[in-house]
Amino acid sequence: MLDGQVAIVTGGGSGIGRATALELAGHGATVVICGRRQEPLDETGALEPHGRIAGITCDIREEDQVDALVDEVLARHGRINILVNNAGGQFLSPAEDITPKGFRTVVRLNLEGTWLMTHAVATKAFIPSGNGGRVVSVTLTPHTGLAGMAHSSAARAGVENLMKVLAIEWARFGIKLSAVAPGVVATETFMTKYPAAFRDHYTESVLAGELVTPEQVAQTIAFVVSPAGRAISGSVINVDHGHDVSQVRYPPREIATERGSIEQEARRT
Ligand SMILES: CCCCC/C=C/C(=O)SCCNC(=O)CCNC(=O)[C@H](O)C(C)(C)COP(=O)(O)OP(=O)(O)OC[C@H]1O[C@@H](n2cnc3c(N)ncnc32)[C@H](O)[C@@H]1OP(=O)(O)O
Ligand SMILES: NC(=O)C1=CN([C@@H]2O[C@H](COP(=O)(O)OP(=O)(O)OC[C@H]3O[C@@H](n4cnc5c(N)ncnc54)[C@H](OP(=O)(O)O)[C@@H]3O)[C@@H](O)[C@H]2O)C=CC1
């Protein structure tokens, strides 16, 4: 499906980024992954049997490192067809405790880093090639606002709108941009680094009774960048078992009947 395509996946050393790199490589793409540390990148590369994944260290917040990464990929492969902006993250905190530096840190990583990568790949590769390209940025649901993550919710809303406006401006270059918004994903970071009470609450109470897997997010991204996804641009695609419409199981325990449903209203004559 992706034979001959060259992709960059940021944050490819772990979690969703690793699953995405493996998925794209499994469909024939040559994939360059980046992150701040070399070791996890090498671990991802070692999981791919055909040598299609290579890691280059890059901090997406640093303009010079982003430029150097894109230049290196072009020097090695001569083209870039796909960019997956996956690197990101935040710390859980009540909004009133987020310091200006903390807010800036999260916005800089998730929004500015995504902008730097997208702008560099578009101006150095997609536009000069005349062939356009595909960009998918990983954001998050619920879009109604995620309590405890004011900084990240704001940054991801910015990323989703950025994808939309660039989908308009860069349609003339054949560049398609979208966001894929996962719900709660059972990655190692989420399962081991987030506070146990937060993790357990979501694991037990999500609408579908199960968390999203990194592979499910990766398969959706692969579909969007595949020939079958050619008409997708300016979209936000949730991969969240319905987390965007409800963050709790239905029906709530307090009003559930013995059949696990809600009471039917008596007919009035
Ligand atoms: C219901 C839906 C759930 C959705 C759940 C989503 C889960 C995920 O997204 S999991 C996968 C993402 N991965 C991560 O979130 C990685 C873990 N997070 C981090 O590495 C950091 O939080 C980071 C994203 C902010 C990056 O850190 P870094 O750039 O290395 O920055 P510093 O650690 O130096 O911190 C700078 C600055 O930020 C403030 N700060 C950082 N951590 C905290 C904290 N735990 N509590 C409060 N404030 C924090 C703080 O201002 C730091 O400055 P200093 O105080 O001077 O250190
Ligand atoms: N897990 C979840 O429930 C959800 C996750 N998401 C989002 O999906 C994305 C991936 O999440 P997940 O796989 O769980 O998280 P991980 O923590 O496993 O992955 C984050 C990756 O990003 C890399 N990274 C972090 N900062 C930078 C940076 N400045 N420059 C380059 N790379 C960086 C990290 O590598 P290194 O440390 O080596 O730089 C790491 O490989 C994130 O944006 C996350 O917020 C969205 C919804 C839910």
Automatic annotation (TrEMBL):
<keyword id="KW-0521">NADP</keyword>
<keyword id="KW-0443">Lipid metabolism</keyword>
<comment type="pathway">
    <text>Lipid metabolism.</text>
</comment>
<keyword id="KW-0576">Peroxisome</keyword>
<keyword id="KW-0276">Fatty acid metabolism</keyword>
<keyword id="KW-0275">Fatty acid biosynthesis</keyword>
<comment type="function">
    <text>Participates in chain elongation of fatty acids. Catalyzes the reduction of trans-2-enoyl-CoAs of varying chain lengths from 6:1 to 16:1, having maximum activity with 10:1 CoA. Has no 2,4-dienoyl-CoA reductase activity.</text>
</comment>
<feature type="domain" description="Ketoreductase">
    <location>
        <begin position="5"/>
        <end position="178"/>
    </location>
</feature>
<keyword id="KW-0597">Phosphoprotein</keyword>
<dbReference type="InterPro" id="IPR036291">
    <property type="entry name" value="NAD(P)-bd_dom_sf"/>
</dbReference>
<dbReference type="InterPro" id="IPR002347">
    <property type="entry name" value="SDR_fam"/>
</dbReference>
<protein>
    <recommendedName>
        <fullName>Peroxisomal trans-2-enoyl-CoA reductase</fullName>
        <ecNumber>1.3.1.38</ecNumber>
    </recommendedName>
</protein>
<dbReference type="Pfam" id="PF13561">
    <property type="entry name" value="adh_short_C2"/>
</dbReference>
<keyword id="KW-0444">Lipid biosynthesis</keyword>
<dbReference type="InterPro" id="IPR052388">
    <property type="entry name" value="Peroxisomal_t2-enoyl-CoA_red"/>
</dbReference>
<dbReference type="InterPro" id="IPR057326">
    <property type="entry name" value="KR_dom"/>
</dbReference>
<comment type="subunit">
    <text>Interacts with PEX5, probably required to target it into peroxisomes.</text>
</comment>
<keyword id="KW-0560">Oxidoreductase</keyword>
